[in-house]
Write a structure and sequence with these properties.
Elements lengths: L2 E6 L3 H10 L7 E7 L2 H10 L4 E5 L7 H10 L5 E6 L4 H9 L4 E4 L4 H45 L23 E8 L8 H5 L2 H21 L4 E7 L2 E7 L8 H19 L4 E5 L3 E2 L3 H14 L6 E4 L8 H19 L2 H16 L3 H25 L4 H12 L4 H39 L7 H7 L4 H12 L3 H19 L4 H7 L5 H12 L3 H8 L10
Parallel strand pairs: 1-2, 1-3, 3-4, 4-5, 9-11
Antiparallel strand pairs: 6-8, 6-9, 6-10, 7-8
Helix pairs in contact: 2-3, 7-8, 10-11, 10-12, 11-14, 12-13, 12-14, 15-16, 17-19
């Protein structure tokens, strides 16, 4: 990319020589304008940006030093090289104070000046490259933090209110967004996915990671602002930011879903199903929208490759909704190890089925089958069964069998949970205590919920649920709170710089740390330090 240089000198022959003699094209520059004094140069700088200014010191109307002062006051980013026939150190010192990059004496040694320009522009391009990388890093950090927050919103673990201190800086934009919501799911009852059941935990994690990467890369290639959130093993929620000025276009979103399914099939060799929410979802409706799509996909008698939910034409009967509500309560109770609620919901489900006529039972059988599959997936996440027990249950589900058999599987699963509930509760308490120690030891570096879950041997979704139940706040809320509290202590009790403290509590980028800290405390780090450090703390590197 070619930059622009502005030549400022009251002697026309000098600007003409500079235009002709200096190899501007080789230096990646073009002469964008010339001026006879500082006033003319300011007018040109206000009209268009320049990357470099070559400026004489002694000029009429406005001299070079006055021009440089105005340039810096206006915050222009251009580099400046001064030209002068005066060897007075006072001029050099003033030029340095105003941030001039170099100072060349007249008569101009053109070879030397060419080298100076090359060095200045190389330094400028290096700074621009670093700035771009920092912005990209900051943007990715905000994207990752936003994905973690969006996961908590989807799972109904947190609310996006004005008092939620987690929404800091650029993340506040989440509150104003609306999204196209697409759920991608693996049909675990399909012949094509039987290999998935045989894979080890490590293989499944690699596979899930590969799918996430394919989805993110495809969305990024198409220029979408997006989030890809893995809900559990084999299920993802894709959120694509929608332009508020554009109406909901189902055909367009259907095309996006097809594009994503094709990308996963081509790159990961697996076939998924997609459920689309039938309207844009604002943030405060994301959890409900996700549940409606998941419910539709689970209760659909016939799985379509791409379907829209809720199905307003087909509607949902009272029996359908009652069955779904019982299913959700039962799975929730099983995951919590609440045996009394499990027993009550099992009785309720049995009564619902007993009260149906033959035609209704025929319609509910595939729904019940989907429910059992869903229950099996959740238990797999929790690690309830041994490999042999799990294989036996999967083989049962592969066969076509009746309502009583399905209920028998549900009973077997829930009893297995009940038998292990006491041990499981103790194990969960140990896992959460271990997780807390792990997090507290590693606050200084970037931490993900996936890494913490792996450390204690749990799936990400089950870890997130246990963490919220144990500490009454989400993983990201806990980690951020601990980091902020540690930063407050270090600001009050140490002489370390804000940048150093930011790194020691896990923020590679100072600006992002400052945004989070201000949202948490109401003060920027420097002001907080001024208010809380003891008077005898001495000078501080801020």
């Amino acid at each position: 990319m070619t930059g622009k240089v502005l030549l400022v000198d009251d002697e026309p022959h000098i600007t003409r020589n500079l235009e002709k003699v200096i190899p501007w094209e080789m230096l990646g520059l073009t002469v964008g304008g010339t001026a006879k004094n500082g006033m003319e140069a300011l007018e040109l700088l206000e009209a268009q940006p320049f990357d470099l200014v070559l400026c004489d010191i002694r000029m009429p109307i406005m001299d070079g030093l006055e021009l440089v002062k105005h340039i810096r006051e206006k915050g222009a980013e251009c580099d400046i090289i001064m030209l002068s026939g005066y060897q007075d150190f006072a001029y050099t010192r003033a030029a340095i104070q105003y941030g001039v990059q170099d100072y060349v004496l007249k008569p101009i040694p053109y070879d030397e000046l060419t080298g100076v320009i090359a060095r200045v522009m190389s330094s400028q391009r290096m700074k621009q490259k670093q700035l771009t990388e920092e912005r990209q890093k900051l943007g990715r950090m905000i994207d990752l933090a936003s994905e973690k927050i969006l996961y908590d919103i989807l799972m109904d673990y947190t609310e996006l209110t004005d008092s939620n201190w987690m929404i800091a800086g650029d993340e506040q934009a989440i509150r104003e967004q609306q999204y196209a919501l697409i759920v991608l799911d693996l049909d675990v009852s399909s012949e094509r996915t039987k290999d998935w059941r045989e894979w080890s935990d490590k293989e499944r994690k690699l596979w899930n990671f590969a799918v996430c990467n394919v989805l993110r890369e495809k969305l990024q290639q198409n220029g979408f602002h997006h989030a890809v959130i893995q809900i559990r093993d084999g299920e993802w929620c894709v959120l694509i930011e929608a332009d508020k000025s554009q109406p909901f276009d189902l055909a367009q979103i259907n095309g996006w879903a097809e594009m994503l399914l094709t990308a996963v099939k081509n790159h990961v060799k697996l076939s998924l199903y997609a459920g689309i929410y039938r309207d844009y979802a604002p943030v405060d409706s994301l959890s409900q929208a996700y549940k409606l799509v998941q419910q539709g996909m689970q209760l659909a008698p016939h799985q379509e490759t791409i379907a829209v939910y809720p199905d307003c034409e087909a509607g949902s009967s009272q029996e359908d909704q009652a069955f779904w509500d019982t299913s959700e309560k039962l799975i929730g109770a099983v995951k919590r190890g609440d045996t009394s609620v499990v027993d009550a919901e099992l009785r309720r489900m049995t009564q619902q089925l007993q009260g149906m006529n033959e035609s209704l039972i025929g319609r509910f059988k595939p729904m019940l089958h989907f429910f059992v599959l869903n229950l099996m997936r959740e238990m797999k996440e929790m690690g309830i069964f041994s490999r042999d027990q799990e294989d036996l249950l999967w083989r049962k589900l592969d066969r076509r069998f009746g309502i009583k058999d399905l209920l028998s599987v549900i009973l077997q699963v829930t009893r297995a949970v009940a038998d292990k509930s006491t041990d499981k509760k103790k194990q969960s308490e140990r896992s959460m205590a271990e997780a807390k120690q792990f997090l507290d030891r590693n606050l200084y570096r970037d931490l993900s919920v996936e890494e913490a879950a792996t450390h204690v041997g749990l799936s990400t979704s089950y870890f997130s649920l246990l963490f919220k139940q144990t500490f009454n706040e989400t993983f990201i809320e806990y980690v951020t709170r601990q980091r902020m509290e540690r930063a407050k202590t270090m600001l009050a009790d140490s002489h370390k710089s804000v940048a150093q403290i930011a790194k020691e509590v896990g923020y590679a980028e100072r600006r992002y740390f400052t945004k989070v800290f201000m949202k948490y405390t109401g003060d920027n780090p420097t002001d907080y330090r001024g208010k809380h450090q003891q008077p005898d703390g001495g000078m501080m590197d801020r």
